[in-house]
Amino acid sequence: MANLYFLLGERLELDWFAGQIIATKVDNEWQALARDSFLEDLEWQQRTLAIAALRHREREGNLVDCLERWETREAGLLQRWREMLVELRAGAAPDFAMLAVANRELLDLAQSSTRGGERPDAAAAAS
Predict the structure, then answer these.
(1) Whose CB has fewer CB within 10 Å in the chain, the N or C terminal residue?
(2) Using CB atoms within 10 A of its CB, is residue 11 exposed (0-12), middle (13-18) or buried (19+)?
(3) What is the 3-state secondary structure (H, E, C) of the chain?
């Protein structure tokens, strides 16, 4: 499980994203609390994603195959996350609004993954 957790973090560039969160300038206590919340959310999302990806492991299969099956199932949301990373890298240092939106993208991916690939907004529309 730990290997999958770190492999997933590497493929989704979550360490880079965590570094951006840590590097965000903090001007007051509320911003410091927001930054800590973003880091906690990121940690939870990475764990949730790793657990969801692990469900795609075949009995004797390796972790890379498992992760690739999960990536295929979540291709749309993963594309959105990768586009978000491109935008974050293209601009100046991210601010709290940008980090909040990026964290939301990861939350959508985590929720979709736990539902077996069903998009959160699609589930809401269906009910």
Answers:
(1) C
(2) middle
(3) CHHHHHHHHHHCCHHHHHHHHHHCCCCCHHHHHHHHHHHHHHHHHHHHHHHHHHCCCCCCCCHHHHHHHHHHHCHHHHHHHHHHHHHHHHCCCCCHHHHHHHHHHHHHHHHHHHCCCCCHHHHHHHC
